[in-house]
Amino acid sequence: RPYKRAVWIDCGIHAREWIGPAFCQWFVKEALQTYQSDPAMRRMLNQLYFYIMPVFNVDGYHFSWTNDRFWRKTRSKNSQFRCHGVDANRNWKVKWCDEGASFHPCDDTYCGPFPESEPEVKAVAHFLRKRRKQIKAYLSFHAYAQMLLYPYSYKYATIPNFSCVESAAYNAVNALQSAYGIRYRYGPASSTLYVSSGSSMDWAYKSGIPYAFAFELRDTGHFGFLLPETLIKPTCTETMLAVKNITMHLLKKCH
Hints:
This protein is α/β, with parallel strands linked by helices. It has helices at 19-34, 39-47, 58-66, 119-130, 162-180, 189-192, 200-206, 229-250, and strands at residues 5-11, 48-53, 135-143, 147-150, 185-188, 211-217. The chain has a 6-stranded mixed β-sheet with strand order 2-1-3-6-4-5, sandwiched between helices. 47% of the residues are buried. Keywords: Carboxypeptidase, Hydrolase, Metal-binding, Metalloprotease, Protease, Zinc. The active site is at 216 (proton donor/acceptor).
């Protein structure tokens, strides 16, 4: 079809959360390998486009492998401070640098000198803005808290399409639990996790993407240390069930 709805998936906006990029890679592998054998996968891929960014914060991710395992931010330079980087999940133009973000360049939650100051954020925001009528779901993968979060992050308030999003989250969490019995909490990010401003999820929702979710994947060792295949597999397997569930929800009439 000339116009298909789309799903955006990104992983690794925070450098040290290695299980995120591992999941993005897993998703692509599963999509390719099970397209023929899995009717649900075939229906998803036939009826929707998927845009997948396996590593959002490439420089930070590389730095977490080579220099500092617990690095979180980007690696941009600051002219006045020796500290590097910006929290790429506080750099979006939605209540930028309000509660839950810091103006200090050395802090882990530094919001940056201005919204979309980071080339990574600017590029993704530009891509999503151009396609916001087409993209119906925004899924961002983090670690580690066993949660499925939806807007708002920056305030305690109920989103207009709450019932649709809430039912999608509820069903996704149940699908995830069916694999290994792991129970995820779900709900608005502000009350379920904490208040934070300038997040990609809130920005995506405010830009008109009706389903915006942030997964906090269960960890497989502290921040996914080294991620041996035996530990990656359970997390990715159960998360895949949740993502497929949300995707199938999109094909129904609840927006």
